[in-house]
Design a protein that fits this description.
single chain, alpha/beta, 36% helix
Length: 168
């Protein structure tokens, strides 16, 4: 295996609604106040009957490129929790997105969940390069520190700033 590529979901591959705007849209569409205090762990936040959830065109073009490479395994890892798998898979299917692995958070801190997952993939497949696409600036900083200690080259793509960095 030459390469493994991982895409994040929210604000990376898809423009899912943010809590502040999402609560307003929820009220406008349903006539009801959003019924929960939390946002990211709730099924309603991924409901395409309520929200327009478009693809991020810049990242989608990267996805098309990454899946075209013969020696590349393409996966998705999201901080969304495992009980939302049905909603996440529905969104992926509606956008004709397919992955060799779809990983939802099992209840850990998202950064810890992702780095543990990534290390497992690197250990199992020994790729020459591991590429990740992500948006969360506080995680990207930590991923950069993590990347310096990995067994393969790590490419971190910051989808907000449309930049990438290589480590090792």
């Amino acid at each position: 295996m030459k390469k493994i590529t991982c895409f994040d979901l929210d604000k990376t591959l898809l423009f899912t609604p943010e809590p502040e705007v999402g609560r307003k849209i929820f009220k406008d569409k349903t006539g009801l106040d959003y019924p929960h205090s939390g946002w990211w762990g709730r099924r309603e936040t991924l409901d395409t009957n309520i929200f327009d959830i478009p693809l991020n065109p810049w990242v989608y073009n990267k996805y098309l490129y990454e899946i075209s490479l013969d020696s590349n395994m393409v996966i998705l890892a999201t901080g969304r929790i495992e009980p939302l798998r049905k909603q996440v898979e529905k969104l992926l299917a509606e956008n004709n997105l397919s992955f060799e692995g779809v990983h939802l958070n099992t209840g850990h801190d998202t950064y810890v969940f992702k780095t543990n997952l990534f290390e497992g993939y690197i250990e199992r497949y020994a790729p020459d390069r591991f590429t990740m696409y992500d948006d969360r600036q506080e995680h990207l900083y930590r991923f950069r520190q993590w990347a310096k200690h990995q067994k393969c080259q790590i490419q971190i793509v910051d989808v907000i700033n449309k930049t990438d960095e290589f480590f090792n």
